[in-house]
Amino acid sequence: MENLSYRKTIMNHYREILAFLERSTDAFAESFNAKIKNFRMQHRGVKDRTFFFFIINQTFCLAHNFCA
After folding, report:
1. What does the radius of gyration of the chain's CA atoms come to, in whole angstroms?
2. How many CB atoms lie under 10 A from the CB of residue 55?
3. Which of 17, 1, 43, 68 is nearest to 56 (CA)?
4. Given 3-state DSSP classes, what are the helix, strand and coil percentages for the chain, each rounded to the nearest 5?
5. pTM for the predicted model, two decimal places
């Protein structure tokens, strides 16, 4: 009897379930932003901005193959 109840519930709400499963998230971007923020906190006081961005590029883009 319970299986019929589950089936009926799923059949009644399948569009909402599919919409939930197919949604896109910003998890990757949020994680990357958190890593950069943490990196900035660790290297606070760096005067040379060019060098700072070079280090970010070396650390995140090239090491993880993110950048083209």
Report:
1. 22
2. 14
3. 43
4. 75, 0, 25
5. 0.46
Report the alpha-carbon distance of residue 2 to residue 9 in Å, rounded.
11
Residue-wise pLDDT for 26-52, tens only, equals: 777 788 888 888 888 887 877 888 888
Angle between helices 2-12 and 14-21 (to 10 degrees): 70
Residue pair 4/12 in contact (Cβ under 8 Å)? The answer is: no
48 φ, ψ (degrees, to nearest 5): -85, 100
CB 35 within 8 A of CB 63: no
Q: Phi, psi at residue 31, to the nearest 5°?
A: -65, -45
Tokens of residue 47, six digits? 């005067």
